[in-house]
Amino acid sequence: MTAQKLSIVKAINASLRTALENDPKVLVMGEDVGKLGGVFRVTDGLQKDFGEDRVIDTPLAESGIVGTAIGLALRGYRPVVEIQFDGFVFPAYDQIVTQLAKMHARALGKIKLPVVIRIPYGGAIGAVEHHSESPETLFAHVAGLKVVSPSNASDAYWMLQQAIQSDDPVIYFEPKRRYHDKSELDTEAIPAPLHAARVARPGTDLTLAAYGPMVKTCLEAAAAAEEEGKSLEVLDLRSMSPVDFDAIQASVERTRRLVVVHEAPVFLGTGAEIAARITERCFYHLEAPVLRVGGYHAPYPPSRLEDEYLPGLDRVLDAVDRALAY
Amino acid sequence: MTVDSTAARKPRRGGSKRAGAKTAAAAGAPELVQLLTPEGERVEHPDYSIDLTAEELRGLYRDMVLTRRFDAEATTLQRQGELGLWASLLGQEAAQIGSGRATRPDDYVFPTYREHGVAWCRGVDPTNLLGMFRGVNNGGWDPNENNFHLYTIVIGSQALHATGYAMGITKDGADSAVIAYFGDGASSQGDVAEAFTFAAVYNAPVVFFCQNNQWAISEPTEKQTRVPLYQRAQGYGFPGVRVDGNDVLACLAVTKAALDRARTGQGPMLIEAFTYRMGAHTTSDDPTRYRRDEERELWEAKDPIARLRAYLEREGHADEAFFAALETESDELAKHVRDRVRTMPDPDDMAIFDNIYADGHALVDEERAQFAAYQASFAEESH
Ligand SMILES: Cc1ncc(C[n+]2csc(CCOP(=O)(O)OP(=O)(O)O)c2C)c(N)n1
User: A118 in helix, strand or coil?
Assistant: First the structure.
């Protein structure tokens, strides 16, 4: 396989397949990942080809899944764990935060925890509660974890390869509403570093910084703004921990305005951190305060209200207008 | 029969090559409490008995038929796009009606997301169950109105809430009891294990009612446990019993006994209702990927409704007029549900900010005001 157009689901599946083929220590674990191929079919066909010892249907216990993945990693394996939905990671949160994140430091750096935790996240799929959350900030806040999210097939494939090869625990957030969007994947390409931001669309008047599901929304906003004669740069952050502040700074020094967009609540979110740091770094470049567009300080609403809750084109463009009005 | 009398027996499921033949082996297992055979014949059990009037028997039958009809209607409504999702209880009517009818009004019920039949027994308006699945709310009823808690989607969590509630009952010196529902898959969660521990330690008046419908989405019970689930209770220090979950009489008798035990200070009990999920896990699921049709056919022969009907007819407890009237009542219920759901209004946009805090919160107030101003700006533009 070289260059082709693939959906994100298929790209992740191909990435897992490559990892399982390349390294006998890689394991795939989770609820329903075997015969069913996962509720989103991300692991479709893997158990058939690699067997039940490598693609493991686990008991329904998230703390158990992550806790045993830690043990397997201590024994030299590289588990790639699937959490079925964002809202179900919390039974495992204790293991992730109090154990997985800290063990490397506690062991004086002598042990490595190459555990990848894949979490389908975000809204706009019309689901019932606990199926549409954006808890990435909760993980990015914890030292010892790396947190990333692809927005297209190529990143879905390559970032997962890199996450699996990383000796650190990586929380890999999959933008479920974009699962079936197709884009170019070149499996022979030389990928960008895992935590580097990427200019998804160059522009001169303002930078929109986003990751995961919101990258597409921002690209659409930039296309709409172009019709009104505004040139917006879209930066795909790709990583929430670490954040590529240098890339954001470079972009802001060009465009002088920044709007950060994410589905997760604005309050104490990734956007808040970026706004604070970029204000420190670019105070004399900025023509407007850094603005944020994101979720409210409210539980994720029932699905009939999610269009109002989630940042859409209009809310992004409204923030762009406000930033440009300074 | 409690664990004490069966503990010495070899596990019948799991742990051996015979695990593959699970349904046949388990259904005929002697530890299964049964009062009504699949053919609709009344049998006796040494530990659990029940004596019901013809009217009570017809009542149980009516409950099961109406619950099944409601469930079927909800599945149809999902197919028609009126609901985003539905978790069908098809096949589990006896487990739910039997256990639900065993509760007293002052008891408290903690369901998962599939307990539509229990909700029916508690007097919850069935259309209230649909709001969450339609996407107009995240709950949809006042739990205290019928002592029926909200549906819990995060599996196993409610076992702890139930236990805590039961601990409260003890502190109050009341004689109510609590029943917590969960699935065989959920039994693997730490929360359920912790609930067992607390319930045992505090001798809480809580009955754990595990509906083992043999599947947790695509995973068979073998992926959760290597011993019959009811036997787990022993390790925590309270009795466990396995009941034929397709036998409404046995479910009623066993649950009544367990609730009475709890009420009289004898502590928790685990009931494993051995049943079968006849449909998909939810309307999003495709069971053909992981299980064979023959399995379902095997269980259709044990249908809980058909067996009670056979019994009612055999004993002359119900006549044609009863069944015909029930058919009409089912049609009316289905129509009522259909009409109610189709006209169920979408929530107001501002509901996003409702009921987040009981005492209010400055940030929520600020965001609510910003949101309102933003929404209003579109209205102004369109003038
Ligand atoms: C903590 C958590 N993890 C995963 C899920 C996703 N999920 C929903 S239902 C289900 C299977 C539950 O099976 P079981 O407990 O046997 O109950 P059943 O649905 O068969 O009645 C799973 C994995 C969830 N709801 N909560």
Answer: strand
